[in-house]
Write a structure and sequence with these properties.
Helix content: 25-40%
Strand order of the largest sheet: 9-8-10-11-7-12
Strand content: 15-25%
Number of strands: 12
Mean pLDDT: 81
Number of helices: 11
Radius of gyration: 23 Å
Distance between the termini: 54 Å
């Protein structure tokens, strides 16, 4: 990464914790993206950190309490570094930098992993996302648990594509339990691809974000990328592969054991799911909960838990997740997610 701008304190006025720093940027062509249209990015940083940002040419003055100024400086440094490395900066990237650098964040974004695919470079947008990417790099089996919108599946698919492109694996296996049809896909119209597609659409969407459309089609045709329902994993050994099981909260304990034991030599497996969205019949314990209870703490197995703070979709999604969690706590349904608990609430 190119060196960030060097900030120079120019004054400290008012209380001891009041600080003003001056940031000078050496490439004026990047400032439109850095500052945002009509300085929208600067306004977002000001609002989030309660600081004042004043741009004049290629010089930006940051004023406020010392803590806010330091975080604003780190946020701007990281965003400018992205631009210097040829990546774009949009509103979501500003929000991500604020999450990564602000209160409760990682404190620095300089060493965060970046996933490189043919169509885009993907950086973590929360400290837990950064931990998740590192866990996938380091462990052979990773469980990603948490609510919708936290990037569990998207980042796993991105890592799978990166490793396939780099020749680290020979193929990608993407699977989901087709709970809505009871995995009795023969009752659905069409050939096997048409039967499976409705359940796999989120995975296809992620693939098309990482690879050109023609490459997705070519690799699906050649078998380098395979998308299949969980029932089709039985009896196989998946070697030299990056294997992803999505929506794993809807597996039974027997299905989960079957899937996990498919892991072959030189393979990596990522299992994702949201234990607050279990669609199994009443009284059926989620295989995801069962597997985490049994395997957490084992060597070469990582469990990463996302929360509503890691939701990176529309801000309204975060508020929706929080609202539902609050209602579940009031109703006493939260107990179903505790270790040893069931997976369906009483009504």
């Amino acid at each position: 990464m190119s060196a960030p701008p060097t900030p120079a304190p120019i004054a400290a006025d008012g209380a001891d914790d009041a600080t003003t720093v001056r940031l000078e940027f050496d490439d004026n062509a990047l400032l439109i993206q850095l500052f945002g249209s009509h300085h929208a990015h600067l306004a977002r940083i000001e609002q989030a950190l309660d600081v004042s940002l004043n741009a004049r040419g290629n010089v930006l003055t940051v004023a406020g309490d010392a803590g806010g100024v330091n975080v604003a400086r780190a946020v701007l440094d990281s965003l400018y570094g992205r631009l210097k490395d040829g990546m774009d900066v949009d509103r979501d990237d500003v929000d991500a930098a604020l999450r990564m650098t602000g209160p409760g964040g990682a404190g620095s974004v300089e060493d965060n992993p970046v996933i490189r695919t043919r169509k885009r470079h993907i950086s973590p947008r929360s400290p837990v996302q950064a931990a998740y990417i590192r866990a996938i790099d380091e462990a052979e089996l990773v469980f990603g648990l948490g609510p919708a919108g936290t990037g569990k599946t998207y980042l796993a698919v991105a890592k799978a594509v990166e490793e396939l492109i780099n020749g680290e694996v020979d193929r990608i296996i993407l699977s989901r339990p087709a709970v809505e049809a009871g995995e009795q896909l023969g009752f659905l119209p069409g050939d096997m691809r048409e039967k499976v597609d409705p359940y796999m659409r989120p995975i296809y969407d992620a693939l098309h974000d990482m690879l050109p459309t023609q490459q997705v089609a070519k690799r699906l045709e050649s078998g380098e990328i395979e998308v299949a329902p969980l029932a089709f994993m039985r009896g196989r050994t998946l070697a030299n592969a990056f294997v992803i099981l999505d929506e794993a909260q809807n597996t039974s304990a027997v299905q989960m054991k079957m899937f996990l034991t498919r892991l072959g030599e030189n393979s990596r497996m990522v299992v994702t799911g949201d234990l607050s969205q279990v669609d199994l019949p009443r009284g059926t314990r989620s295989g995801l909960r069962d597997a985490v209870d049994i395997l957490e703490g084992s060597e070469n197995i990582a469990v990463v838990r996302f929360t509503e703070r890691d939701v990176v979709r529309h801000p309204l999604v975060t508020r929706i997740v929080r609202a539902y969690e609050a209602v579940e706590k009031r109703r006493g349904t939260g107990a179903r997610y505790k270790k040893g608990g069931g997976d369906k609430p009483d009504t």
